[in-house]
Write a structure and sequence with these properties.
Elements (H helix, E strand, L loop, with lengths): L1 H67 L1
Length: about 70
């Protein structure tokens, strides 16, 4: 009987540790995903800014071309 109880106790301890590790890894995964979304959002803003700057540059070039003609 003592062997069965010791085995059950060991199993419970190992299971508890496994659940704790899985929970920790899941939390890390969520943080990692949130970090990736944040970086993607920042990159999207930078790309939009570059597009706006490019549009402004095209307008300036067009004005200069008109002046040169």
């Amino acid at each position: 009987m003592d062997v069965i109880l010791a085995t059950l106790g060991t199993f419970a301890a190992v299971t508890s540790a496994a659940v704790a590790v899985a929970s920790y890894l899941l939390r890390l995964r969520r943080n990692e995903i949130a970090h990736i979304y944040h970086r993607l959002d920042r990159l999207e803003r930078e790309i939009n800014e570059i597009k706006e700057n490019l549009a402004d540059l095209r307008e300036r070039v067009a004005k200069l071309e008109v002046k040169l003609k």
